[in-house]
Amino acid sequence: MLTNPPGIEDIFPDRMDAWSRVIGAAREVFRLSNYREIIIPVMEYTEVFARGLGDETDIVTKEMFTFEDRGGRSLTLRPEGTASVVRAYVSNGDYNRLSSAKFYYCGPMFRAERPQKGRLRQFNQFGAEFFGSPDPYYDYEIIAMMHAISRRVGIEDFALLLNSIGCGSPDCRGGYVVRLKSYFEERRGELCEDCRRRLEKNPLRILDCKQEGCASLKKGAPSIADHLCAACRGHYAGVKEHLNAASIQYREDPFLVRGLDYYTRTTFEFVTDRLGGQNAFAAGGRYDSLVESFGGRPTPAVGFAAGVERMLLVAGAADAPGSGLDVYLVHAGGEALRQALELARTLREAGISADLDPQGKSFKNQLKKADRESARFTVIIGEDEAAGRACSLKNMATGEQEKIPAQMCAAMIRKALPDYGKGHGSD
RNA sequence: GUGGAUGUAGCUCAAUGGCAGAGCCCUGGACUGUGGCUCCAGUGGUUGCGGGUUCGAGCCCCGUCAUCCACCCCA
Fold first, then answer.
1. Fewer CB in a 10 Å sphere around the end CB: N or C, chain A?
2. How far is the CA of A349 from the C1' of B11 (A)?
3. Per-residue pLDDT reduced to its tens digit, A131-173
4. Taking a C-beta distance cutoff of 8 angstroms, is the pair A46, A69 a contact?
5. What is the ipTM of this complex?
6. Is the distance between the Cβ of A276 and the closest atom of strand B smaller than 7 Å?
7. CATH tag for A327-415 (out of 3.40.50.800, 3.90.79.10, 3.60.21.10, 3.40.50.1370)
């Protein structure tokens, strides 16, 4: 039997309810802050990600689905969205010339990791990016949107971790990294094997290590908080002020280091302990030099991304079987079927969802199907009804049933549906 | 890439090395034109795949594939 590749899932209708609620909440929150949707390609030239995320990052070195096109150029299925949005922004002169821009995106991402709880090879993210200002307000705006989306989706059990990793200048992170490196070099023997390698490549990442030895070492390590330059310190204070003003709880974590190279100043994560070996369901930060490194004008920017499947896990979202159909038509075949088909057309044209089984076995069988579809009404056309061009309208919740002229059916159902008009056809 | 666990009906799972089962689902009946609750009956299997040991393997051994969990890393 053919199966789907590992870590690449089908999403069936029963799950779509919860799934759409998450995406819907995100879209609505983005709209409220004037972010507009952008559709970015599912694949890019490999350089986009290599340059965007950093040549040495784990994602680029071992987690990308990369292949050659027919001309021998290297293409990669996108492992995240920010690099693509930046690439799109830079290559589109119209937007590039605007003083600022707000985008959001959603769609599948691909990473060639071993699947496990909360980790898929194809998964869905939505995210937002702001271009054009270093003002800490925008860091806040980005964080606040993700916060609002979490609340709307019903995620209660989470923490917001916040940090500033400063800028690259020698009196800021640049100098800090040097101190950090020498601190760990003196204790090289106590570091795990991975961290000894990180010591050369990216000493900051040692702070992220969960090995016991390394974790206890970092308690005595110099903290980035004490080594920010005046400008970055002021920026960080500004972000916190905005968060406080909005009563958004956060926990400062001076050791919060993200796996992507492009971050500057603000970094943050929305974390929970309900994701197995994973902990973050959304994360982001500021990336003030990424646009420039893609060949654009120097343009400060902030953004975040969230994992839809992880949010569903954290929210404990249950599958909802049944379609919420408005009407299921039950018929006795022959002339009754002919009238049922005609009535189905009428109902659908009136914006009422209707379904039936032309093979229609017993009434019992058809009623059962109506129940499985969680239909709100059943319209029954048996031989008696068909003879008088009538139908029996049954409310499936109460069991009440009434025989009415077929002509009146659509009008009566429409009146009885409490939310007719929302999500139904309009007139 | 590394480690551990698990693969039996559509689903969830039983079965000392000795006749492959139950619950749910599905179909039908009790109720000849009425869903959910109850009761009864029925359909449904190359026990992931390939070897081996044995009189005999779902069970033991080897290999392989798949899934899950964890490491690593990340949404």
1. N
2. 38
3. 999 999 999 999 999 999 999 999 988 999 999 999 988 899 9
4. no
5. 0.86
6. yes
7. 3.40.50.800
